[in-house]
Amino acid sequence: MTELETRERLTPGPASSAVVWEYAPSLESTDHVKVASRYNLFIGGKFVEPHSKKWFPSLNPATEEQLSEIAEADKQDVDKAVAAARQAYDKVWRRISASDRAKYIYRIARLIQEKARALAVVETLDGGKPIKESRDIDIPLAAAHFFYYAGWADKLEYAFPNRNVAPVGVAGQIIPWNFPLLMAAWKLAPALAAGNTIVLKPAETTSVSAMFLAEILQEADLPPGVVNIITGAGATGAALVSHDGVDKVAFTGSTDVGKRIQRSLAGTKKKLTLELGGKAPNIVFEDAPLDQAVEGIINGIYFNQGHVCCAGSRLFVQESVVEPVIRKLRERIQTLRVGNPLDKNTDVGAINSKAQLEKIRELVESGVDEGAEIFQSSCALPQRGYWFAPTFFTGVSQSYRIAQEEIFGPVLSVLTFRTPEEALEKANNTPYGLSAGVWTEKGSRILKMAQQLKAGVIWANTYNKFDPTSPFGGYKESGFGREGGLHGLAPYVVLS
Amino acid sequence: MSPRLAVRKTYKLYINGEFPRTESGRYYTVTGKGGELLANASRGSRKDLRNAVVAARKALGGWGAKTAYNRGQILYRIAEVCESRAAELVDELRRQGSPAADARREVEAVIDRWVYYAGWSDKYTQLFGSVNPVAGPYYNFTVPEPTGVVGVVAPEEPALLGLVSRIAPAIVGGNTVVALTSEKQPLAAITLGEVFETSDVPAGVVNLLSGIKSELVPWMAAHMDVNAIDTTGVDTQAIATVQKTAAENVKRVVHFDAAGIGWDDTRRSQGPYAIFDFQESKTVWHPIGM
């Protein structure tokens, strides 16, 4: 790291034209939120100690202090959770009326809305994301997802005309650490609406908001066992995925793990959906409104510290506007406020974990070593906690690791192109296909690019937009199946 | 000690988020099953109707511009407030002549109907909109949009469920409504106005008029700023006249015949097609090319 640090200091600071505003701290209060010192598993509607009798620490990545202790579910715990889900499915959930299912899900949506601020604080404490984002994006969207799918519960015959619509059964769902509560909502809401019961496993570094959600499920009087939440790391997830009592697996996470899961399900009748990694192209044409585009580039890669599977991590700039775009990026990156995630002014928070920070550093090193030119914000980083300054590389060749591998951090690779055809060729030159961005004032070009880009979501003159009504998911090695919208119901139903 | 003397509610109109008496000053008598006086209801006039249409027109832009999610939440809020005022609504239906069990069932169906249509707010466009594969390099899509100001003539019975079943699909689709309540049983319908007023429904989105239907329906059918009329509660023999009058400004005429279905049939007396009845389809062409 020392060599890189030296190089970082060598990178020039902001151009003098950049105005850096000083902001007085504006800290979100945490005294209204009570995080328990230890959380157990949520099985059959109750919090139960893990069979393993083991708990592992969950850290606040901004301080490295322990926030809570999380139960580690072993195979017996997974058995118990799947059994509870099966019983709830057979005895209750598949039997109650569709409109009652809807009412339960509406209750969950309302409870999330009621507790929104507390949930936002928990999300920020546990995951390191800026309070601005957990407050304005994660939590409201989580509530919106439940609200949207609640409405589908008694309307499934309109989503799948001329078919009998039945639930799949017990769903095993594994979610990542970048949007913990939101990903839980993406998974739970459509599954519940379609009449499935669930065993959900949150990521090991961000389980606390899932436990708050468990309390919400209790308050909503959701019948015991309809949703079970078991915590743990990879081994727990593997036990869940391979459990015979699971009819449907939904996974969001890395492409590596996704491939492993797909292999492990071979020969079974389990339904599978995968939402995996990405290396999204964000393409800026010379006629684009450059200031807007730069905001979109910044949002595309530095939103949530770049811990976003659809992050616009490969920027393609048309050659004629490379100079102004890079200049504006250098200035803008310098104005990003990096630091305490609880500060309402913070734009970029803490890296989610030490392991992730090491991965980012390793890939950034490789970029420097392979010959790309690095530029980093000269922002001061806190002494404790996991931090990485917003970074971008220029002079990146397509063969560099930083242009091919998902970094999952606040690191952007800038490449250039001359013609739209070249942009398409380069943009599609990746095994991933989750999302893409296009910036141009020309409508017909947007639509042509959208037609030709091999990605599941195309943002035109905007980026990182999410809505429960809008399907999300990937092409190629970014996975299959869609979450959100009418399409998001399909993985959770059996049609006959 | 003498028993406390009750304070009685004055049943008025609901126009533009307010509860005015009819400008005409007229009233008509609403009686219970045994002929007892229930209320001196406002006998709405042509002028009241016109005021209501002005309010509905004014509210249309803002209501249609709200996000579907927002409209859905407001409809859900209506359900919440109906639930908390269920006892009052049941009591009014009973006083108007419904047996207790029927009244309770009707109010429950009303609440569930609001929840049901709340859920459609951000979904019906996904059913009725389309991307059209035209033979050429064009991106071509069709989206439904609200028709505009909808006049609803509520059926006489069920006084509350019938009204709600016709209003809900119109407003969830972004239209605004002027509704004539059940003539003989307007009490619960007017209380519903209080529900709207306390449910974040913007003023003018729903306007409720009690009165003599045979007097008001022709004016509603003839009004040039009403875009659609729901004749569900119009007397069978009067429908042809309404249809003819409606042609003057090419009103969309919608009629739901509950006979043989039953208003509480959750499969046939509610559905997205009731929303689509009050929608226009807009098709957009855009070239595709570099």
| Count of the separate structural domains of chain A | 2
**Which radius of gyration of chain B do the C-alpha atoms yield?**
20 Å
> How large is the radius of gyration of chain A?
22 Å
Name the overall outline of chain B. globular
Shape of chain A: globular
CATH superfamily name of chain B? Aldehyde Dehydrogenase, Chain A, domain 1
Strands in their spatial order, largest beta sheet of chain A: 14-15-16-13-12-17-18
What does this structure look like?
The complex is a heterodimer of chains A (496) and B (290). Residues 1-16 of chain A have low confidence and may be disordered. Chain A is globular, with a radius of gyration of 22 Å. The termini of chain A are far apart. In chain A, 56% of the residues are buried. In chain A, strands 14-15-16-13-12-17-18 form a seven-stranded mixed beta sheet, sandwiched between helices. Chain A has helices at residues 2-10, 75-93, 98-114, 116-127, 131-152, 156-159, 180-193, 208-219, 234-241, 255-265, 290-302, 322-335, 354-370, 401-404, 420-427, 443-452, and strands at residues 38-39, 41-43, 46-48, 55-60, 65-71, 165-167, 170-174, 197-201, 227-229, 248-252, 271-275, 281-284, 314-318, 373-376, 391-394, 411-417, 435-439, 457-460, 479-480, 493-495. In chain A, a hairpin with a 2-residue loop joins strand 2 and strand 3. By secondary structure, chain A is α/β, with parallel strands linked by helices. Chain A folds into two domains: 38-276 and 475-495, 3-Layer(aba) Sandwich (Aldehyde Dehydrogenase, Chain A, domain 1), CATH 3.40.605; 278-460, Aldehyde Dehydrogenase, Chain A, domain 2 (3-Layer(aba) Sandwich). With 290 residues, chain B is of the alpha/beta class. Chain B has a single domain (37-287), classed as Aldehyde Dehydrogenase, Chain A, domain 1, CATH 3.40.605.10. Chain B is built from ten helices and ten strands. In chain B, the strands form three sheets. Chain B has a five-stranded parallel beta sheet with strand order 7-6-5-8-9, sandwiched between helices. In chain B, helix 9 links the parallel strand 8 (228-230) and strand 9. In chain B, helix 2 (68-84) runs antiparallel to helix 4 (100-120), helix 3 (86-95) packs across helix 4 (100-120) and helix 8 runs parallel beside helix 9 (239-246). Chain B starts with 26 loop residues before the first strand and ends with a strand. The mean pLDDT of chain B is 97. The interface between A and B is medium-sized, with 26 and 25 residues.
